[in-house]
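ARCHIVE CARD
Drawer: 12
Card no.: 0347
Subject: one protein chain, sequence and derived structure
Cross-reference: see card 0346
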Amino acid sequence: MLAAWWCRARALVAGPAPAPAAPQIVLALPALWAEGAADIADFDDCPREKRRTPHALRADGSRRCFRCGHETPGQDS
C-alpha cells in the first residue's frame, strides 16, 4: 500500500510525459510523393482481376495493383 502511494506521489511531482516527436518521414511524405519516390495506397478497379483491389497511386497518375502487379498508365504518362 505504501509503495502505491509512493509511485503516485512520484508521478504527480514528475508532471505529464513529454509529447513524442513527429517522425521525420511523415513530414517528408508530400515532398517524396511529388518527386515520385513514394506511392499512396488507394483502391481501384483492376482490369486484370476485374474487381476492386488495393493499388499504389503514383504522382504521375499511374497505378500498380498490389495483388497482381498490373500497371495502369496515368494521364501524365
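Annotation on reverse: Residues 2-14 form the longest helix (13 residues). The chain has a mean pLDDT of 78.
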